[in-house]
């Protein structure tokens, strides 16, 4: 049985990296899997969020999912805090995962910055909650951008340790050898790691203070064109071969973005645009506007009706809970928690 789970944090401006690395892939997977897509608000508060902004961003991510083409009736769309099973399972995983494992997570190091003592405990334990998100549904596949690869490896380690620690009990209760599946990440394509438009060494991110570092899904056509025109490049023209992008992160990034938007590969893009950057940047701006503006328009329409979005989230949460509840009951039995039946 093949089930997809993935999430996006309601932490601010959704950007092209979120779209190409995650949401666009979510849409494509609908034809092949049973899909559960979550607005992960519990993750969001691992760093401070203004309450009003959090609610607005939660509805905005939901709108982006739907505007991009996710069908909330055929699949499940909901926000994490409405399904308590995520937090419940995360606690169990806090007790399965080891401090040493979490100490190796690069996202914590990046997000906590210099003052690690000041980071929230939640930010440190973030990967355990992410493992719980996926495993509360026994999801088999998780589409994410490359930045989340390490967290998914940790989720596999957690699943494996749980399966081993409780092996006897799991067998006794008739769950066979593997209680939790070892989830496969789905990370592929030319835009699995979209970089900042200002710095080819940093990923495009919602939390980057510079708005010129990213293209937001809510940007209008003029802003998109301006940001692409201003995007950092080097003085060399575009090469004719992919090998020529070696050591040129900014150029490689823009070519990858084009390929992601056009559903092609870098080589095909270079075959068409080898030569001066100006012509390529103009084409990239046009393509970005062509692909994003229908989504932006639909997001604006949807966010104008917050009650309808809330109804979709409530319905999704109920259907998500119906899957997660029995799995959590089994977890409790495995662990030895006494519960009323
Ligand atoms: P934050 O800075 O708050 O962490 P974010 O931009 O990293 O925001 P997330 O909500 O953490 O966004 O991630 C949502 C999804 O988007 C994840 O699957 C993540 O891997 C993917 N993603 C995020 N940034 C990029 C990027 N630059 N390129 C490709 N995929 C990305
Ligand atoms: Mg992130």
UniProtKB/TrEMBL annotation:
Binding positions for ATP per the UniProt entry: 9-11, 17-18, 145-147, 194, 203-207
Top-rank EC class of the record's enzyme: ligase
Motif ('HIGH' region) on chain: 10-18
Superkingdom to which the source organism belongs: Bacteria
Entry-linked HAMAP family: Trp_tRNA_synth_B
Protein name per its UniProtKB record: Tryptophan--tRNA ligase
Keyword field contains DNA-binding: no
Keywords assigned: Aminoacyl-tRNA synthetase, ATP-binding, Cytoplasm, Ligase, Nucleotide-binding, Protein biosynthesis
Gene of this entry: trpS
């Amino acid at each position: 049985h093949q089930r997809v789970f993935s999430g996006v944090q309601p932490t601010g401006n959704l950007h092209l990296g979120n779209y190409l690395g995650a949401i666009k892939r979510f849409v494509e997977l609908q034809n092949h899997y049973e899909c559960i897509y979550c607005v992960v608000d519990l993750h969001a508060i691992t760093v401070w969020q203004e309450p009003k902004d959090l609610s607005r961003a939660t509805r905005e991510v939901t709108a982006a999912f739907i505007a991009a083409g996710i069908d909330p009736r055929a699949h499940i769309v909901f926000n994490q805090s409405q399904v308590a099973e995520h937090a419940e399972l995360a606690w169990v995983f806090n007790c399965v995962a080891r401090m040493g494992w979490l100490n190796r997570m690069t996202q914590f190091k990046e997000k906590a910055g210099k003052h690690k003592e000041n980071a929230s405990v939640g930010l440190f334990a973030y990967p355990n909650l992410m493992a719980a998100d996926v495993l509360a549904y026994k999801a088999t596949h998780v589409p994410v951008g490359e930045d989340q690869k390490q967290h998914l490896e940790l989720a596999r380690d957690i699943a494996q340790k749980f399966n081993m620690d409780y092996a006897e009990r799991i067998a006794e209760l008739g769950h066979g050898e593997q209680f939790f599946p070892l989830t496969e990440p789905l990370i592929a394509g030319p835009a699995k790691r979209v970089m900042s438009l200002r710095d080819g060494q940093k990923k495009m991110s919602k939390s980057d203070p510079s708005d010129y570092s990213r293209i937001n899904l809510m940007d209008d056509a003029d802003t998109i064109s301006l940001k692409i025109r201003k995007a950092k490049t080097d003085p060399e023209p575009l090469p004719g071969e992919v090998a020529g992008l070696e050591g040129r992160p900014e150029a490689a990034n823009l070519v990858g973005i084009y390929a992601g938007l056009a559903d092609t590969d870098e080589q095909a893009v270079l075959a068409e645009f080898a030569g001066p950057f100006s012509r390529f940047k103009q084409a990239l701006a046009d393509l970005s506007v062509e692909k994003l503006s229908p989504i932006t328009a639909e997001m604006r329409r949807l966010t104008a009706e917050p009650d309808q979005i809330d109804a979709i989230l409530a319905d999704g949460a109920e259907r998500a809970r119906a899957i997660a509840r029995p799995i959590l009951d089994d977890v409790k039995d495995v662990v030895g928690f006494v519960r009323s039946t």
